[in-house]
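Structure tokens please, single chain.
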Amino acid sequence: MKDRKNNKKRTGSNSRPSLKKFSDRPSFSKQASVDAENIVIGRNPVLELIKSGRTVEKIYIAHGEHEGSIKKIIAMAREAGLVIVEADKAKLENICGSKNHQGILAFCTDYTYFSVEEILDYADERNEKPFLLVLDGIQDPGNLGALIRTANASGVHGIILPKRGACGLTAAVFKAAAGACEYVRLARVTNITDTIEQLKKRGVWIYGADGDAEKDMYGTDFSGATAIVLGEEGKGLSRLVKEHCDFLTKIPMCGQINSLNLSVAGGVFMYEVFRQRKE
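Here you go.
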């Protein structure tokens, strides 16, 4: 392939706090909680949050949930001097707006986004050709979380999201990502097409995922600096974004169903890039 020319700090003392009872805390707007970037729910997401060193303000544990992985989380939280509060499951549901909290949630500082340049510099520091995922209007938090999880596993250096008209980091995204949000560099940008042009100037080739493309992914060379662009669920790439891509490529399909879930399709593309880079 031709070449184209976090300061984090954990809060809390070293003292060993006891499990406090949930007391007078103001009620939460369920929608505001669902959309918040400072609430992490689920056992593995909270575990990885503590390990990452991002500032954790408070951890809520459901009554009776002291076995299995939660026991390990409590031990880690105590060692870090974090505040642990015991509450009933209904309170946890009210805070996070979901029943899918697995008996634990954490309040933390908002995620600190990276710039596109910082993501590219990170790839340079690792002496690797940049590998990015660009999301053009993703809406579903489950899809976003799953893509972040796969990106971490497949060696993606960073993910680029639009600031408006798309899903951001929410409790549901943190849960679906299973802790990967703490390790994947995410950037939010005002204009995806302008960002694509910025990437081109830094030597990155832009590959748009398009079901109508002439060439499929197995006939596409991803060995250079690569950005895979995925469109919105059910709509695909927007016209302007498609026009700014260097190449369009698709996943070959042989069955009666002619499309895949966005996070599945993204995973297929990411691992094809991973496979080619390992050869």
